Amino acid sequence: LRLGVITPATSPRLAKVLRHFHQHFPGVLLALFELTSAEQLRRLRAGELDLGLLRPPVSFPELEWKFAEQSHQVLATPAGHRLAKKRKLEWKDFDGEGLVMIQPGQQHGFYDAFLSACATAGAKVYPAQYAHDIQIKMWLISAGFGVGPTTAALSEIKRPGLIFRPLPPGLPPVQTLLVWRRQDESPIVRNFLNSFAGPIGLD
To answer: Global pTM?
Structure first.
């Protein structure tokens, strides 16, 4: 079973689902791929993945999806940064800040709400550095290249040199979807989907 995941989805809750699935179907070999949402959608449509855990939107009619989980956004800053020292942030505080962001072709709309809130408050931000994946993004922030919004799930993983602060109100929660091909009648895929529908799933 080929499963694509975005980094924030590799949580203890997902591990619980995988453990449940493995216990009930020990003969199924799981192949997990850490991929961006855009790359997962490409591979799903090409038949190179069976399922994916990714960010919306999913706008292809041949793909089906269900809600998996959601998380609010927080700000990641380098230790000692001026925003790290503020207990309560306002959107105007971001004026002039450089952001560490995922490459534009891989963002899948993640930054849209954050950038819109900054613009509404008159705060001008700019891309200070791009990263190819979440781990590199967090490493660059810890190294002092800038700040950046991320999901609260990632703040649960402690990293040296990183400080997390709540963002001002107004951002919608970030959703994770479980996606598969609509015409896929594989019993293995169906069994995995049922693992998400049970009492330990992400519904």
So the answer is: 0.83
In terms of Cβ atoms closer than 10 Å to its own Cβ (0-12, 13-18, 19+), residue 174 is buried
Digit-coded pLDDT (tens) for 127-145: 999 998 888 999 999 999 9
Phi, psi torsion values for 41, nearest 5 degrees:
-60, -40
For 101-132, the pLDDT digits (tens) are 999 888 788 999 999 999 999 999 999 999 98
Residue entry with tokens 């534009």:
104
Looking at the DSSP assignment, which residues form a beta bridge with residue 130?
101
195 phi, psi to nearest 5 deg: -65, -30
Nearest alpha-carbon partner for 37 in 175, 172, 188: 175
* Chain centroid to CA 202: 15
Which residues fall within 8 angstroms of residue 156, CB to CB, at 6 or more apart? 11
